[in-house]
Amino acid sequence: MFEQDLYSNLATIPITIDSFTWHSAEQYYQASKFTDEEIITKIKECSNPFLCAAIGQTREFKLRDDWEEIKVSVMERAIRARFDQHPDLADILRRSKGTLYDHSAADDFWGIGANVTGKILMKIRDELQSTPD
Length: 133
Hints:
Layout: E1 15-17, E2 20-22, H1 25-32, H2 37-45, H3 49-56, H4 67-85, H5 87-95, H6 116-130
Helix pairs in contact: 1-2, 1-3, 1-4, 4-5, 4-6, 5-6
């Protein structure tokens, strides 16, 4: 069904959160950084996850005050939605083995390094594996 890296937050895999369908976890994550409706709307209207990431890097708009405290839980919510809403992908994740990474994450926090995305993926995988079919 999906030819992209299903572990990448940049993969165009739609998720619905808060009554809006986001085309990727990245789009949801970037929009969640802000409280200003102007930039949130700009990100919602963006159709390319890489461009959404670039827009989200702007500091023309202030980040929400609690962003550093909530950013991991925001990303976990998006990744969980991906696997909750796409059972075929959840099955692939459940059957995976070893350390998981978002190889497209070009930083030491989400990607290889701290591997926070991978840790979220493995946490969800562990939960899927401990749940009977």
